[in-house]
Amino acid sequence: MLTKRIIPCLDIKNGRTVKGVNFVDLRDAGDPVELAKIYSDEGADELVFLDISATEERRKTLVDLVRKVASTINIPFTVGGGISSVEDVEVLLQNGADKVSINSSAVKNPQLINDLAQKFGSQCVVVAIDAKQIDGEWVVHLVGGKVPTEWSLFDWAKEVEQRGAGEILFTSMDNDGTKNGFANEALAKLSELVNIPIIASGGAGTIQHFVDAFKDGKADAALAASVFHFKEIEIKTLKNELKNNNIEVRI
Amino acid sequence: MKIVIIDYGAGNIQSIMFAIERLGYKAVLSSNSEEIKAADKVIFPGVGEASSAMKMLVESGLDTLIPTLKQPVLGICLGMQLMCKSSEEGDTKGLGIFNVDVVKFSNKVKVPQMGWNQIYNLSSPLFSGITDNEYMYLVHSFYAPLCNEAIATTNYEVEYASALQKDNFYGTQFHPEKSGDVGEQILSNFLKM
């Protein structure tokens, strides 16, 4: 059976991990490569690196990081943040990234999805969608949930699938940071609507939330950051509990 | 030992290079027939779309070279699919090393299959030391059905061949370079052949 995936997300600024991490045994808690190695050893199925730096040198720093990660870990990883062109993607893939995630640039220029899928294959194109509810409607937002777009979550998901996205990373801005669970209703609807894998993001607080995202939300993978970084949930424990709940995982 | 990764413009080559380095070897990238022929081991990578990858192979003349190679050859992912007789993707004629036609998953399951799935019915020195039901990382929309040359089986909607072997030619649908320590063991087995 294809297993459900657990994906820790690391926020990167100028080549360093942001958001404090609570790993006492880590020599350098800000070193993304060291953290990536630990997660990989603990049984993470994939990793996501989200670059939030805004400096001129960001591209070079990110490429250096991708090379270091790819040379160190032997599981797949996705790189996102500020990617807006075929050239951006080419250099990341050439240096060992497995997938890239695009968000605002896809909304601004949907053709980018087609171009990337055609040149590199759908398997490496993850479209990240941030959405929140306005008057009961799920509306796609940009700039970390600040700017609403014309798109409804479900229309946009269908659109990106048709344009060749290989996977959708759906973050519910309503749930993100609350630790109250994932947006399972919207997730389940998305999962029925499109035929590409859905990664659930936003709201993880307990192990039960992951169980619910897979059972009720029908998600193919679940992503979280702080619960892993602060060791509130250990990946090994999480996967064992998922298995106890009859959810297929790689142990 | 000389390891050559065939360079024809398709594939996440860097990950394979790094995986080989982690195992203590060095690989070179090449599209040169003489260099490929002289190698001890040849790796034939590939991601992307079948017909355009095949076109690049034909343009470089590698389509006629690869089936004549005598040393161990390992095709990975699309590389494996191109070693088959044909692929439904882009109605592509393959290299015909494996006597099987690659077809697409139906829309009853999510396509691409993306993630970790088990391999079983393992029957090749490629899997020496590997037990049935280990998890491998796979990303693909097309698959090789079960056939005489299958050396590993995976189940996703149907049971299919997730690895193939004929004589000195090996192919894996999964990515050993991205499949954790077990994947590295498989790669190491290949390099020690």
TrEMBL record, chain A:
Subcellular location: Cytoplasm
Gene Ontology terms for molecular function: imidazoleglycerol-phosphate synthase activity; lyase activity
Any single Pfam family the record assigns to this protein: His_biosynth
Broad class of enzyme this protein falls into: lyase
Primary location group: cytoplasm
Keyword Aminoacyl-tRNA synthetase in record: no
Catalysed reactions, as listed in the record: 5-[(5-phospho-1-deoxy-D-ribulos-1-ylimino)methylamino]-1-(5-phospho-beta-D-ribosyl)imidazole-4-carboxamide + L-glutamine = D-erythro-1-(imidazol-4-yl)glycerol 3-phosphate + 5-amino-1-(5-phospho-beta-D-ribosyl)imidazole-4-carboxamide + L-glutamate + H(+)
Keywords, sorted A to Z: Amino-acid biosynthesis, Cytoplasm, Histidine biosynthesis, Lyase
Pathway field: Amino-acid biosynthesis; L-histidine biosynthesis; L-histidine from 5-phospho-alpha-D-ribose 1-diphosphate: step 5/9
Family per record: Belongs to the HisA/HisF family.
Function: IGPS catalyzes the conversion of PRFAR and glutamine to IGP, AICAR and glutamate. The HisF subunit catalyzes the cyclization activity that produces IGP and AICAR from PRFAR using the ammonia provided by the HisH subunit.
Assembly: Heterodimer of HisH and HisF.
Protein name per its UniProtKB record: Imidazole glycerol phosphate synthase subunit HisF
Organism (species): Flavobacterium weaverense
Gene it is expressed from: hisF
From TrEMBL, chain B:
Source organism superkingdom: Bacteria
Reported function: IGPS catalyzes the conversion of PRFAR and glutamine to IGP, AICAR and glutamate. The HisH subunit catalyzes the hydrolysis of glutamine to glutamate and ammonia as part of the synthesis of IGP and AICAR. The resulting ammonia molecule is channeled to the active site of HisF.
Catalytic machinery residues: 77 (nucleophile), 175, 177
CDD domains: GATase1_IGP_Synthase
Matching NCBIfam families: IMP_synth_hisH
GO MF terms held by the record: glutaminase activity; imidazoleglycerol-phosphate synthase activity; lyase activity
Pathway membership, UniProt: Amino-acid biosynthesis; L-histidine biosynthesis; L-histidine from 5-phospho-alpha-D-ribose 1-diphosphate: step 5/9
Coiled-coil ranges from the UniProt annotation: none
One Gene Ontology term from the biological process aspect of the record: L-histidine biosynthetic process
Domain Glutamine amidotransferase: 4-191
Ranges annotated as spanning the membrane: none
Key words, A-Z: Amino-acid biosynthesis, Cytoplasm, Glutamine amidotransferase, Histidine biosynthesis, Hydrolase, Lyase, Transferase
Location of the protein in the cell: Cytoplasm
Keyword Transferase in annotation: yes
Subunit field text: Heterodimer of HisH and HisF.
Catalysed reactions listed for this entry: L-glutamine + H2O = L-glutamate + NH4(+); 5-[(5-phospho-1-deoxy-D-ribulos-1-ylimino)methylamino]-1-(5-phospho-beta-D-ribosyl)imidazole-4-carboxamide + L-glutamine = D-erythro-1-(imidazol-4-yl)glycerol 3-phosphate + 5-amino-1-(5-phospho-beta-D-ribosyl)imidazole-4-carboxamide + L-glutamate + H(+)
GO cellular component terms, semicolon-separated: cytoplasm
EC code: 4.3.2.10, 3.5.1.2
Protein's name in the database: Imidazole glycerol phosphate synthase subunit HisH
Pfam families assigned to the protein according to its UniProt record, in alphabetical order: GATase
